[in-house]
């Protein structure tokens, strides 16, 4: 059986921790986070670059490989029954995730997957309760990489369990949001807009005009609750 590649905490263990969901439609829900490593994009503002940027971070010190059973054991040791698989880009390991998800779903766990939307759900399509899809806009800095994949976005939308979260830095980003949604057939009611920022001050400033825009155009609004509560820290 192939192993899952996870981010590693400073103590050498896997980055699996209990907190509350900080973004999107399930914001505030007690959750166990499982952070996978490796990503196919290179966002300039990424706050988990240690999962993929081997020019800045030591690969051996940043990741580890575990069997699905070992990950399941770590999840069971924590109270929340909602599991958020994040990254990195989890759908790069969608096949390896199947045994973990099947095992814990049989025990009553609920699963969310955070994804950039460049890969379809594949064998996870019927297993995941909620896909939190975050297509990356031009300001992410992914020049030369396929950051928007309309076919994959349509596959995710077809599950009926996907929400599409866009990180917005300035009002001009909305034209690109509309274009992506039109190309992938995403309805405004499934769209969540969130201000870009890693400080409470920036989130408040951008959040004010973004919330007003959401009210006008029928999008959902989300802030970054974990940033407001704990700042830009790992493991919370």
TrEMBL record:
Pathway: Purine metabolism; 7-cyano-7-deazaguanine biosynthesis. SUPFAM superfamilies: Radical SAM enzymes. Catalyzes the complex heterocyclic radical-mediated conversion of 6-carboxy-5,6,7,8-tetrahydropterin (CPH4) to 7-carboxy-7-deazaguanine (CDG), a step common to the biosynthetic pathways of all 7-deazapurine-containing compounds. PROSITE patterns: RADICAL_SAM. S-adenosyl-L-methionine binds at residues 45-47, 88, 134-136. Mg(2+) binds at residue 48. Substrate binds at residues 20-22, 35, 86. Homodimer. Binds 1 [4Fe-4S] cluster. The cluster is coordinated with 3 cysteines and an exchangeable S-adenosyl-L-methionine. Binds 1 S-adenosyl-L-methionine per subunit. This is 7-carboxy-7-deazaguanine synthase. The keyword Metal-binding applies. Its cofactor is Mg(2+); [4Fe-4S] cluster; S-adenosyl-L-methionine. The keyword Coiled coil does not apply. Belongs to the radical SAM superfamily. 7-carboxy-7-deazaguanine synthase family. It catalyses: 6-carboxy-5,6,7,8-tetrahydropterin + H(+) = 7-carboxy-7-carbaguanine + NH4(+). Residues 26-232 form the Radical SAM core domain. It is an enzyme of class 4 (lyase). HAMAP family: QueE. Its EC number is 4.3.99.3. Keywords: 4Fe-4S, Iron, Iron-sulfur, Lyase, Magnesium, Metal-binding, Queuosine biosynthesis, S-adenosyl-L-methionine. Gene3D superfamilies: Aldolase class I. [4Fe-4S] cluster binds at residues 39, 43, 46. The lineage of its organism: Bacteria, Bacillati, Chloroflexota, Tepidiformia, Tepidiformales.
């Amino acid at each position: 059986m192939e192993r899952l590649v996870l981010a590693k905490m400073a103590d050498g263990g896997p980055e699996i921790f209990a907190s509350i969901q900080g973004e999107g439609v399930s914001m505030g829900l007690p959750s166990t986070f499982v952070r996978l490593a490796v990503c196919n994009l290179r966002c300039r503002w990424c706050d988990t670059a240690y999962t993929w940027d081997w020019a800045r971070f030591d690969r051996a010190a940043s990741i580890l490989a575990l069997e699905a059973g070992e990950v399941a054991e770590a999840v069971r040791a924590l109270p929340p029954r909602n599991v958020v698989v994040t990254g990195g880009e989890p759908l790069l390991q969608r096949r390896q995730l199947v045994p973990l998800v099947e095992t814990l779903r049989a025990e009553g766990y609920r699963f969310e997957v955070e994804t950039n939307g460049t890969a379809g759900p594949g064998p996870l399509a019927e297993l995941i309760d909620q896909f939190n899809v975050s297509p990356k806009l031009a300001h992410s800095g992914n020049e030369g990489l396929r950051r928007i994949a309309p076919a994959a976005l349509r596959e995710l939308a077809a599950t009926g369990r996907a929400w599409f979260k866009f990180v917005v830095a300035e009002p001009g980003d909305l034209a690109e949001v509309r274009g992506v949604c039109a190309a992938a057939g995403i309805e405004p009611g499934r769209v969540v807009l969130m201000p870009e920022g890693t400080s409470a001050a920036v989130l408040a400033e951008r959040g004010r005009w973004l919330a007003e825009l959401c009210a006008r155009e029928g999008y959902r609004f989300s802030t970054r609750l974990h940033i407001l509560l704990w700042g830009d820290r790992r493991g919370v």
